[in-house]
């Protein structure tokens, strides 16, 4: 399982090279936390990349939104 952050994803999305990242990691998809997804959407709104690219990546299941279980959410709230 690979969980990606905003920096690496936005760079590869902007370069239209996410497939290269997936190949290098030897995976067919990456997981992103909701906070990272929100940052990617904000970047698209500011013109850093296209919102259509994000839709294509999620439709192809190359980028998948990661949800936190109740226990994880509780631990996060305690930090």
Considering DSSP H and I runs of 4 or more, what fraction of the residues is helical?
55-70%
Q: Describe the strand arrangement of the main beta sheet, using strand numbers.
A: 1-2
For the largest beta-sheet, the strand count, sense and barrel status come to: 2 strands, parallel
Radius of gyration: 13 Å
Structural overview:
By secondary structure, the chain is mostly helical. The chain is 59% helix and 10% strand. Strands 1-2 form a two-stranded parallel ribbon. The longest helix has 12 residues, at 34-45. It is globular and about 35 Å long. The chain starts with 5 loop residues before the first helix and ends with a helix. The relative contact order is 0.19. The model has no long low-confidence stretch (mean pLDDT 84).
Task: Describe the structure concisely.
This protein has 79 residues and is mainly alpha-helical. The protein is 59% helix and 10% strand. It has a two-stranded parallel sheet with strand order 1-2.
Label this structure with key terms.
single chain; 79 residues; mainly alpha
